[in-house]
Amino acid sequence: MNILEKLQTIDRRILYLLIAAVIAIPLLQRPSRHPRIVFSEVKNAYTTLSKVPKNKIVIISCVWGPGTRAENEPQTKAIIKHLLMEDTRFVMLSWDQLGSQLTYEDAVEIGKQLGKRYGKDWVHLGYNPGPMYAIIRGLGKSFTGVFKVDRFGKKLKDIPATKNVRDYRDIGAVVEITPSGTVSSWIAYFNQPYNVPLVFCPTAVMSAEAYPYLDSGQLDGMLNGVIGAAQYETLIGMENERTYAAAAAWALSCAHIFIIVLIVLGNLGYALSRRSAPQRGGGRTG
After folding, report:
1. How many whole angstroms separate alpha carbon 167 and alpha carbon 164?
2. Where are the beta strands (DSSP E) in 128-203?
3. Predicted pLDDT of residue 64
4. Strand partners, 199
5. By Cβ atoms counted within 10 A, which residue in 51, 101, 137, 172 is the most buried?
6. In this structure, are residues 83 and 50 in contact, taking their beta carbons and an 8 Å threshold?
């Protein structure tokens, strides 16, 4: 029995251990190299947010919680860092109770790194239970009519970053970071009626359904899962930094390549074993 034939009978537990090692090594070593190829939808997201006028704010809508933190948090951090680097004010709102604290901590961490202050450069509105469509619809007509205080109970009209925000005319873009199909609510009730740019940051499994919106122009850009976050980090000058997004991108790529190699070797061994097997049965007579 040659090595290719032996691959067909290898213990599946060994394969599980090998795939675990392939995924774990990049995550533990945290390679600094980021993707050099950046998808067009990621470039469009970067361009859209870079063009937001300085007298307008960006709304970052976060639907994610601990369950999808591995994919949505790198997207959130990349967007926050880009906006703070551009001196573009933003307002965060969370539709997940646990995610509200996580997104606030992310913004605090990055704000400290860049010397930005809460209230002046950014504001967090805390957790909002919804209903989402009603709140989104109301934002366009009256921002302070829907949101009156921040997560600490301070009036928005007394906070420098939000005191002049009245309605859709003061909002330069919306970023929706989510593991579900909530982007349609923004498209229907805010971005299409008021022609405000919309950037979508879904988990990878949800990204396929967004491409029709991209093709139609209803979305202005997209970060496709953690791969999109790593590509976005490349655009904002983090290509040589050791980040979780870059490590996860390496881990996913290595795992996919490893599985493809196993499939090819397994099928090759199967084909060779059938070719070398003795033929059974006699020829037809008569």
Report:
1. 9
2. 171-178, 198-202
3. 95
4. 175, 221
5. 172
6. no
206-265 pLDDT tens trace: 988 899 999 999 999 999 999 999 999 999 988 888 888 888 888 888 888 888 988 887
CA–CA separation, 118 and 108 (whole Å): 8
Give me the residue label for tokens 């090759």.
Answer: 268
Q: Please state whether the peptide bond connecting residue 278 to the residue before it is cis, i.e. omega within 30 degrees of 0.
A: no
Indicate the CATH number for domain 36-239: 3.40.50
Q: Quote the tokens at residue 234.
A: 């490349």
Q: How many residues comprise the chain?
A: 286
Amino acid identity of 196?
A: V
List the chain residues with pLDDT less than 50: none
Asked if 92 and 103 touch (Cβ cutoff 8 Å), the reply is yes
Query: For residue 43, what are its two tokens?
Result: 């470039």
φ, ψ of residue 117 in degrees (nearest 5): -115, 140
DSSP H/E element including 58: strand 57-62
Q: What residue ranges do the domains of the chain occupy?
A: 3-27+249-276, 36-239
* Token pair recorded at residue 3: 């090595």
Residues near 160 by beta carbon (within 8 Å), at least 6 away in sequence: 119, 120
- How far apart CA 93 and CA 171 sit, in angstroms, is 14
CB atoms within 10 A of CB 56: 17
Residue % of the chain over a pLDDT of 90: 61
Beta carbons of 108 and 151 less than 8 angstroms apart: no
CA distance linking residue 107 with residue 122, whole number of Å: 8
Asked if 83 contacts 90 with a C-beta cutoff of 8 angstroms, the reply is yes
Q: From 102, 35, 106, 60, select the one nearest 200 (Cα to Cα).
A: 60
Tokens describing residue 135: 């709140």
Cβ atoms within 10 Å of 140's Cβ, excluding its own: 18
